[in-house]
Automatic annotation (TrEMBL):
SUPFAM superfamilies from the UniProt entry: PDZ domain-like
Family matches, as InterPro entries: PDZ (IPR001478), PDZ_sf (IPR036034)
Keywords, alphabetical: Coiled coil
Protein name: PDZ domain-containing protein
Top-rank taxon, per record: Bacteria
Highest classification ranks of the organism: Bacteria, Pseudomonadati, Pseudomonadota, Gammaproteobacteria, Woeseiales
Residue span of region Disordered: 28-55
Coiled-coil segments on the chain, per record: 65-99
Record Pfam families: PDZ_2 (PF13180)
Domain PDZ residues, every copy: 191-259
Feature: compositional bias, Polar residues: 28-41
Amino acid sequence: MFNRTFVLILAVGIGVVIGAVSVSRFETSESSVKGSPQPTTGALVEPLDQGESSDLDPQQLTEVLESLIQTLDKEIVERRALEEQLDEVRSTVTELQQQLVARIDDDASQDRQEQTAETFEDRLLAAGFTLQQIETIRSRHAEVQVRWAELDDQARREGWIDTPRYLEEINKLTTGTNSNRNNLSDDDYDRYLHASGQDNRVVVGEVFQTSAAEQAGIQSGDVILSYGNERVFSLEQLNNLRSGGESGSPVVVDIVRNGLPMQVTIPRGPMGIQTQSELVDPAN
């Protein structure tokens, strides 16, 4: 559209120039006529019909402009066709991208469904437990879950939910004589926690300056495996272990740092660290 407008403006400009040249030539001829005898009407018109005036024929100019306009129109049509083809290509690419995203989402959804369809028993089997062990574990697991729900309801009704008493009762429940913790070896309990989706590692976050942990060489990122020869699977268990026994007595702590097992000695009591629980595959 811009190019066609430009051509039309150019045509108008050329027309103006032609008119100016024609008027100028006419005035020049007229002035020369005033200084000489008056010619006949035919003699006055004759110079305008000869010589360079033939190069400024409006008809020829019109034909040239029409040719340019036709060429421009053709180019515009071709350009619009190319733009339409480009739009089609863009639409196709967008559709393919949407199909790819949908396919990825479908695959991810299918993976989640397959993982969800995997039962607790399947995970225990994959962890290496026998069918007899699985039956015993499931029975104890179900009993603890029912008792936990009852304890939670009681604590909410009586107003001591999330209190030290509540945490103590939960600890008794999960480590009692009929719990899986009390009836499985450390390694089996570790695999049981992982199969049931429960955190089984305590990881050091921040180590406070001048603390017992810093002086013992414990660093951020260390995994605490045991405290005083007792396996550690939760923060509550670690707190119970460090608060038991004689305060200040040396305790050996087994840690894993960057995949390598290490031992440090620390006085029993507050360690001066922040920790977090994580779920880790014992096989790794």
